[in-house]
Design a protein that fits this description.
The chain has about 325 residues and is of the alpha/beta class. It folds into two domains: about 150 residues, Rossmann fold; about 160 residues, Response regulator (Rossmann fold, 3-Layer(aba) Sandwich). It contains twelve helices and 13 strands. α6 links the parallel β6 and β7. The longest helix has 18 residues.
Amino acid sequence: MVRVLCLLFVFVPIVTFSALAKEKIDVAMIETLPVNIVTESRIAFEAELQRLMPDKDIRFRVYNAEGSVDQANILIADMLAESKPDLLVSLATLATRAVFNNDDLLSIPKLFMVVSEPVTEGIVSAFGATSKRNITGESHVVNAEVKLDILDGVLQASEPVTALKIGLIHTSYPSSFNAASALIARQSAYQNIQFIPIKTPYIAKKAGLAVMKEDVISLLNSQETALDGYWLSAGPLIETPNLISDIEKQTGLLPLFAESVASVQEGALIGIVSQAQDIGVSAARQAKRILALGSSETIPIEQIENFTVAVNVSTAIKLQLPIPSNYLKLSEQHVYQ
């Protein structure tokens, strides 16, 4: 009897490491200065992009320009010396200015975040248009008319006899200066608002925040015309620790409008802004599209659509300025006291 041995061969597919490995994506990020809105927007961007692209191995390289265009240019050279990224993200105006003007970056898709005035900066000719330098992004601020309408609505409710004299606090930092200029250009349409410009030179690096704060306080105290309050425009200065409380202690003044929710929490009467989380999430959606296209050239530059209204009822009581009920409804969970 011949026994036939049957050999059963089980074929197990061999999965190589390369088949399992995710495609690598290199995202370089140059931030102007690690103030709250920049840092929080970047963190939200990184988290959302990883969520949107789970099949990719995304490497984030973060460079801090310390508030200086010159330092940003040095970092760009260092970045290129290391490797050319798949996407270059610039955060805030000065870093974006350096990225936008660098001819060595034309072939790299670029995305900006936390830039208030891309049209004024010359990045694009108008909202809804595309840039010729392979860059796109969104302005994170509300236009001047909307902000003035919001404050004027509060003032009208109190039926003022004369216009309120409002110190317009800003610096020479591009987003701050541009925002202040836009407000001044439109104030003649608002009979309840009279701006008194309070401008201090922008000082780079985080240590410059304290110096700018002291200069602002000195300028407010030196005003010959009594102010009814002040307006905090966009830019690094608004991120200064204890800015509102220190101004109140030394001048007795409170902000009538501030372009950050944190400032409203600290005592500003009202504000309308984009939250850092919304900025980062929206930018991540754009980044996914850019990476799929391999270019930013065809994506128009727009204004972000998500905004938050915040009010401080304690400040309203102190200033005897009633908050209209429709504003309280708009504020939802951002009513502070």
